[in-house]
């Protein structure tokens, strides 16, 4: 393994180990999306039927992919927050003065957050039969690849904020102000079909809309009703990859301009 690869692996390993040592953080990351899914899904199941659901789909099933994205969002909020803590404890300063590139630091942190997000989402996939979704191995594999792309982009976005913020509270406020609105406007909660023109255009400009479409198409590969009106899978995947590359460039630029001390 090259020196840069070892540095990235070390930072990745640290992020993963630290997460699994914090049991409350593990439970919170899984329980919050589960509560959203059970209560909102059950509450809106009888009264809210978007056209994309079709005649045989419950809202609990329709909302299921949106909850997976929400789980990835929560991890993208909590995982980079450790960067703020690392700065206060002096660990980040120690890393930055070491002979290691800041790009390697960013990639190690990002891969750590991505691993944690995808691992939790894969656990959540076990509940898919409760939503009426029976996944094949191919669907699970394709969904995992899409979730990796989504998590990587969202973690990078969180890191770009964390590298410039000194307060954990301020970090959470900013991230919630960014991530929750783009989640609501991604098609996770309601489809763009039938919405006002201005809202439909807003959703079309939201990169998370395409990530949501790609995930929905991997979970429902045989349902023409669900995927009708969505961007094509390849377009959605391409936009999600571009979103990940853009956020990686953003956090790399922010990290390179951040003072060592």
Question: Structurally, how many domains make up the residues?
Answer: 1
What's the total count of β strands?
0
Output the structural class.
Answer: mainly alpha
> How many angstroms does the end-to-end distance come to?
30 Å
What is the count of helical runs?
A: 11
Helix share, percent = over 70%
Overall morphology: globular
Q: Nearest-angstrom radius of gyration?
A: 19 Å
Order of helices and strands: HHHHHHHHHHH
Largest sheet: none
- Low-confidence segments: none
Rounded average pLDDT:
79
Strand content: under 5%
Characterize the structure shown:
By secondary structure, this protein is an all-alpha fold. It has one domain (3-256). Helix content is 74%, strand content 0%. It is built from eleven helices and no strands. Helix 2 runs antiparallel to helix 3 (59-89), helix 5 (102-124) crosses helix 11 and helix 6 packs antiparallel against helix 9 (207-219). The longest helix is centred in the first third of the chain and has 31 residues, at 59-89. The protein starts with a helix and ends in a 5-residue tail after the last helix. The model has no long low-confidence stretch (mean pLDDT 79).
Describe the structure in brief.
The protein has one domain (3-256). Helix content is 74%, strand content 0%.
Notable characteristics:
261 residues; mainly alpha; 11 helices; globular
SSE blueprint:
Elements: H1 3-20, H2 23-44, H3 59-89, H4 91-97, H5 102-124, H6 137-162, H7 168-184, H8 197-204, H9 207-219, H10 224-227, H11 233-256
Helix pairs in contact: 1-5, 2-3, 3-5, 3-6, 3-7, 5-6, 5-11, 6-9, 6-11, 9-11
